[in-house]
Specification:
- InterPro entries: Alpha/beta_knot_MTases, Ribosomal_eL30-like_sf, rRNA_Methyltransferase, SpoU_MeTrfase, tRNA_m1G_MTases_N.
- It comes from Limosilactobacillus alvi.
- Pfam families: SpoU_methylase (PF00588).
- GO terms for molecular function: methyltransferase activity.
- This protein is α/β, with parallel strands linked by helices and 298 residues long.
- The chain folds into two domains: 114 residues, Ribosomal protein L30/S12 (60s Ribosomal Protein L30, Chain: A, 2-Layer Sandwich), CATH 3.30.1330.30; 167 residues, SPOUT methyltransferase, trefoil knot domain (Alpha/beta knot), CATH 3.40.1280.
- The chain is 36% helix and 19% strand.
- It contains twelve helices and twelve strands.
- The protein has a seven-stranded parallel sheet with strand order 8-7-6-11-9-12-10, sandwiched between helices.
- Strand 3, helix 4 and strand 4 form a beta-alpha-beta unit.
- Helix 3 packs parallel to helix 4 and helix 7 runs parallel beside helix 12.
- The longest helix has 17 residues.
- It is elongated and about 65 Å long.
- The protein starts with a strand and ends in a 14-residue tail after the last helix.
- The relative contact order is 0.13.
């Protein structure tokens, strides 16, 4: 049985995360403990539940509630995931739904859920969890667009990237738009935050200490193509991606072991960072180590 609560208005305090709190307020809602985030669509919610995130509540449209709950229950049963139990499930009609869409939500794809964040490991503990054989990780430095962050995670999940480090001046992977664009793969790829100041001061030194070579995606006189043999032969590789426009910090490029580029037509010097990540991960990720991965899915 589900704990269904049918609403006639959106005024209750328990609805504040859906109606009145922005992403930053959700992030800090339970300080000093990890905060909250919004997961949108049954697929994203299901992947969050499968990864062990706890829901505080769900909000669904009345006319699609049965379908969405059936989809969630089915997926959780398949993956032997803990059910929703007595989690409050708020049900709204189309009129109330329009108030939410006016605030920036789009429920055309189903449900919303308020989820509890989890504590992220520090860099040392995070790197200790990476595979011992041929690990490939990505670092997102000042990637401020949530859509790009989500797309990068989706490519990382598909193309054999073992983990992602996100600097604190990047968009949060758990922002609603990022997790939606990622199709929930932000709950599939291991990742952690790193304070941007610490990253600039000692991040690459820490990676070197763990045996990683670093490859900055940038254009320099000594830039090599992403299919250069030395990159494939490197046992531990960290691929560093920067913001749209400004790109990577000069200090990051200077300290990196390689600067790498994607060969392209004359008079075009760059791609969108999300598109660039997909090509780099295709070439440098670990998909080749997994012959069981089929090539017939898109």
């Amino acid at each position: 049985m589900h704990n269904l609560i049918f609403l006639e208005n959106l005024e209750g305090k328990d609805l504040a995360p859906y109606v009145r709190l922005n992403e930053a307020q959700l992030f800090h809602a339970l300080a000093p403990h990890p905060g909250l985030f919004i997961a949108e669509s049954p697929k994203v919610i299901e992947r969050a539940l499968r990864a062990g995130y706890r829901p505080a509540s769900l909000l669904m449209e009345a006319k699609t509630m049965e379908r969405d709950l059936a989809d969630l229950d089915h997926e959780m049963a398949i993956n032997q995931t803990t059910g929703l139990g007595q989690t409050p499930i708020y049900v709204v009609d189309s009129k109330l739904l329009r108030q939410l869409t006016g605030a920036g939500y789009n429920l055309l794809r189903g449900a919303l859920a308020v989820m509890y964040r989890v504590q992220r490991p520090d860099l040392t503990n995070f790197l200790a969890t990476m595979p011992s054989d041929h690990p490939r990780i990505a670092i997102l430095e000042r990637v401020v667009n949530p859509t790009n962050v989500g797309a990068i995670f989706r490519s990382a999940a598909a193309l054999g990237i073992d983990g992602i480090i996100v600097t604190s001046d990047s968009a949060d992977p758990l922002y609603r738009r990022a997790s939606r664009v990622a199709m929930g793969t932000v709950f599939q790829v291991p990742w952690t935050y790193m304070d941007a100041k610490i990253w600039q001061r000692e991040g690459i030194d820490l990676l070197h200490r763990f045996g990683y070579k670093t490859a900055a995606m940038a254009l320099r006189h000594n830039t090599i193509d992403i299919d250069h043999p030395v990159l494939g032969e490197t046992e531990k590789l960290a691929i560093i991606l920067g913001s749209e426009g400004p790109g990577l910090n000069e200090a990051t490029i200077d300290q990196s072991d390689f600067t790498i580029k994607i060969p392209m037509a004359p008079e075009v010097d760059s791609l969108n960072v999300a598109a660039a990540s997909a090509l780099a991960f295709w070439e440098l990720g670990n998909r080749r180590l997994h012959p069981e991965w089929s090539g017939d899915k898109h």
